[in-house]
Amino acid sequence: MINLLKELCLINGISGNETLVREYIISRIKDYCEYRTDNLGNLICFCKGKSDSGKKLMICAHMDEVGFIVTHINDDGTLNFAEVGGIDTGVMLGRQVKIGDIYGVIGSKAVHNLTKAEREKLPETSSMYIDIGADTREQAEKYIKLGDSVCFESEFTELGNCIKAKAVDDRAGCAIMVKMIQETPEYDTYFVFNTREEIGLRGAGASTSAVNPDFAIVLESTTAGDIDGVIGNKKVCELGKGAVVGFMDRRTVYDKELYKLAFATAKECDILCQTKTMIAGGNDSGVIHTTGTGVRTIAISLPCRYLHSPSCVINKADLESTYVLAKQFAKRVHEL
User: Fold this and answer.
1) pTM
2) How confident is the model at residue 121 (pLDDT cuts 50, 70, 90)?
3) Residue numbers annotated as active site
4) Going by DSSP bridges, is the β-strand pair 215-223/79-84 parallel, antiparallel, or unpaired?
5) How far is residue 192's CA from residue 289's CA, in Å, rounded to a whole number?
6) Domains plus CATH for the chain?
7) For residue 336, how many other CB atoms are within 10 A of its CB?
8) Does the chain have fewer CB atoms within 10 Å around its N or its C terminus?
9) H helices within the chain, ranges in order?
10) pLDDT in tens, 284-298
11) CA 208, 212, 216 angle in degrees (round to 5)?
């Protein structure tokens, strides 16, 4: 699954521009399931299982990653931009980015030109620009147009027992689902690859309405704050301690029976599993669980350091634990 994750992470696809990601996923699952694409670009797959429980389960992950969009081309050939999704300005400055086939670097005012007050705080996005090496607006306009998508450019690197890459949120969930589809689930299951999660969970509402499931499992990547100087519950979750199953985040109070079942499944199957120690973040569950007459929902997440940056770091064993728990839990949901 490491190679599958690598290929997915290296594809560029910010919210609203997930086409290349979707095309790659289709190439990997087309021989294993029925699939269709809706008007928002969601990829909705039905995988015939070995049995039909009479319950409708939807497992989903989102295809999009955080990034930027070009908003203006300046006279000197630099580009103004806005964030697409939540990105801390601290991870932007000096980073290499890609706009189509064009490379650039995010820059800002030179240090020697900063005031004392400016040096003591992170720069605003409005004070940054993208330098593509153009000298004039006319040069830049030959390659760039307003509304172009901008993605972080980052290598996929193995760091001992860990991996560093962009877009782990949520290509990891996509990779797990691709593998589950290829292996044929125990029961009939819908697998949905959603769009536009990073800009407000937009795709999930449409896809959930179309599937109308009884249960939903959301596969995600979630913030791990287990670094030096962070203590107690502020770590949220930790690398090396397995899959993450939360009881609540900022968008969802998760189904209590499913929450208990997840930990019971982990214990029975000897899978490392942890919970989130802060009410933080959110994911497609926030829309899914309130769609239609309501959907019983749980999220199974992969702990990830430096989320929404070009250098997300995950533990290889945690990726495997998240996959195994998702697979075993999906079977037990059908048996409720």
Assistant:
1) 0.95
2) confident
3) 197
4) unpaired
5) 15
6) 2-65+166-334 (3.40.630.10), 67-152 (2.40.30.40)
7) 12
8) C
9) 2-9, 19-29, 116-119, 137-141, 168-182, 202-211, 256-268, 285-288, 316-334
10) 999 999 999 999 999
11) 65
Q: Judge whether residue 254 has pLDDT over 90.
A: yes
Neighbour-count burial of 101, counting CB atoms closer than 10 A to its CB (0-12 exposed, 13-18 middle, 19+ buried): exposed
DSSP 50: S
Q: Give strand pairing partners of 102.
A: 99
Is there a cis peptide before residue 76, judged by omega within 30 degrees of 0? no
Q: Taking a C-beta distance cutoff of 8 angstroms, is the pair 57, 215 a contact? A: yes
Strands 312-315 and 162-165: antiparallel
Residue 163 has, within 13 A of its CA and on its CB side, a CA count of: 25
What six digits make up the tokens of 206? 């449409």
**146-174: pLDDT as tens digits:** 999 999 999 999 999 999 999 999 999 99
- Are the CB atoms for 209 and 292 separated by under 8 Å? yes
